[in-house]
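[Q] Does anyone have a clean structure-token version of this?
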Amino acid sequence: MDEEKQQNFYRTVKTFVLRQGRMTERQQRDYEELSEKWCIPYIDEKIDFNAVFGNTNPVTIEIGFGMGAATALIAEANPNKNYLGIEVHTPGVGKLLGEIRQRNLTNIRIIQHDALEVLQNMIPLSSVAAFHIFFPDPWPKKKHHKRRLVQRPRTELMAERLVTGGYLYMATDWEPYAEFALEELAATKGLKNKYEGYAPHQEWRPETRFEQKGLNAQRNICELFFEKAGGCDEW
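[A] Here you go.
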């Protein structure tokens, strides 16, 4: 398979499976009442972050925010920074919309769509301060490894959209995936590991529900922190 075909293959293979999760009445209400205000429809053209957020603050993209608890807490702690959450599951979108209302947040937007298509078609090059990827599906079976999000050329797609000094931060409780991702990120053009091997725990990251499940199962939490062309601040 030549390079172009390989890139097309990895960009079209889905990294997720849509689950028909039930929404609570509150999630349904929040989704119906708030999605028009805080959700950005998927479009096949680049978006202007300054117009979307109404300011020039740096933008962090979180891919697969689940139920959005960590997203909301990080955004609340950093009102001078913007956060774009990408998620396909409607209950999680509804839950995060409720957090936006409850916490009176103005610095979060949501796109409910396949993250790879969003990155490819909506996100301009060199426009993103950071990527957060917290406990992505590890796809443990070998035949499913092609579905893993953190691997080339998907990581190259993200690296191209980072600003100089931006970062990609991943956390997982599946050590084989961490080892795999560490190799893939190390081989991604333009990215450099900020640490030797795994990163120390980033204290500003809230614990997630998936993280607690991993800890309850006595699995190690592995964190990876890669920067683009030099050091950066925490976003």
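[Q] Thanks! Anything notable?
[A] Residues 25-38 form the longest helix (14 residues).
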